[in-house]
Amino acid sequence: MTEEDVDIEIQEPYNLLKGLNVADLEDLLEDIEVYRTIEKETNLEFWRDIMVVCEDEIEKLKKLERSERGESAAERRGGINESVTSDVSSIFKGKDYGELVQLEAKIKSKITGADGGTDVGYWESLLQQLNAHMARARLKAKHQAMLRRKLWQLKQEQAEEFGVAGTPLFPSAEGIKTEAEDSRTLEEGKVSEGEDTQERKQPEAPCEEAGSSAGVSGTKAQESETLIAEEDLLEQAYLDYESGRYSPKLFKTMDFSEEHVVTAEEDSAKRVANRERVLSGETLVSDYSEIEMQRKVDTDGIATEEYNFNSEVTIEHQDLLWKEKYRPRKPRFLNRVHTGFEWNKYNQTHYDTDNPPPKIVQGYKFNIFFPDLIDKRKTPTYSLKPCQDNKDFAILRFHGGPPYEDIAFKIVNREWEYSWKHGFKSQFNNNILQLWFRFKRNRYRR
C-alpha cells in the first residue's frame, strides 16, 4: 500500500493519544506490538516512535496518580523533582529533530564522563524524557512530509482535471527531501557533533551554544527556500478538507424523473408494510434481493477463480430462549470460495501450464446479513470447530442473536492467513458480517 492510498489525518498521530487513560494506552501498546509483528520491517521506525510516545504518556499518567496520592518517594526515584519538570519540558519544547539530536549527544557525554559529583540519575531521567520528545519530533516531521506530498498530489489531480497538467502548480514541492535523505542528514549531524567537555557538578538543564544555534538557523533558512511554509500547508489542507472534494456530487430534484423519486408518503407506507410483514410471521423480513446484496458487499466482482459458495450445513439442535417472543429466521448470506493452482515443487515437476494441476481451495469470503437485529450493540460472532468424522474439514458457525438462528458452513480445515496484506477481513458494518480469509501456503523443504 502506497502513501497515496492512505487517508492522512490533519493532526499529528501522537495527538490522538490525548484523552486516553492508562488502560486504553496499555491496550494500544499491545495492538502496536501486533502490528510490528505483522508488518516486520515495514514502517518499523514509525511503530517504534509511537510506542515510545505511548509509554511516555503512560508514565505521565502514573506519575500524576502517584502525586495525587502523595507518594513523594516515587517522585524522588524519578530523578527529576516535580518542581523543575515544567522547566525541563520547556527546554525541549519548540526544538526540531536536529536540535534534539545535538542535545542528546551532550547529555550522553555528560553521563559517560560523569565523576563522583555528577548526578547520573538526573541526566538519565533527562535522557529518557528527551527520547520521547525526539520520537514526537520524528513523527511530526514524517507527518508534515506526508501532508506536503498529499497536497502536491491534490494539486496535480486538480491540474489534470482542469486541463493544465503541463503547468507546474506546485513547483516549490520539487525541492522536498525524501525521508531517507532527511534521516541521513540528521545522522551525519549527530556523528559530527562534538562532545561537551564542560562538567556540571550540580543538576541543571543543558544550555544551547551559540555556534550550534547559528548552524541550525542557517539550516532552517535553506529549508525555507525550498519548502512551502508549514502554516500555508496546513491552511491549504484545511481548505481542501472543508471543500469536500471527494464527497458525492449533489444532484437537484429536477435531474430525476418522477418515477425515481420516493416521496415521504411512499416511504412511510413501505415501512408500515414491512412492520406488518414481521408481525404476520413471514420469513421474508427485509427486501434483500441478490442484486442488493451484491451491491452492499462492496467487492470488485467475481473473478474467474471465485465461485458462489452456498452449501449450508444443518445445525441439529439450537436452544433459542427467545423463540417464543421472536420468530426465528435464517440470515441471508452471499459467500464465495476462492480456488486456484498451487505451484509447489511437486506440481512444477509433474505439471505445466498446458496440463495444470487440480485446483485447490485457497480461501473463502463470507458475507452474512443481519439487518433486523434486536440488540444492535452486540456484534455477531463466528466459531470454528473441526469435523469429528473428517479432520480435513471444519464447521464455521456464525451467531448473530435474536431474531436470527445460527448458520454454519463446512469448509476446508487449514491454517488461516491473518495478515491484512493477504486479504484478511473480519468486520461488522452496515448490518453485514464480513469474514474474508485465505489459507497459508504450504512450503516443502528438503
UniProtKB/TrEMBL annotation:
**One GO BP:** mRNA cis splicing, via spliceosome
Q: Which residues form a coiled coil?
A: none
Where is each Splicing factor cactin central domain found?
4-143
- The membrane spanning regions, by residue number, are none
Q: Name one GO cellular component term.
A: spliceosomal complex
Q: Region (Disordered) spans which residues?
A: 165-223
Which Pfam families does the entry mention? Cactin_mid, CactinC_cactus
Q: Where is the composition biased (Polar residues)?
A: 214-223
Where on the tree of life does the source sit, at the highest rank? Eukaryota
Bias category Basic and acidic residues: which stretches? Answer: 176-203
Q: Tell me where in this chain the Splicing factor Cactin C-terminal domain is found.
A: 322-446
Supply the InterPro entries for this chain.
Cactin_C, Cactin_central
* Assigned protein family: Belongs to the CACTIN family.
Protein name in the entry: Splicing factor Cactin
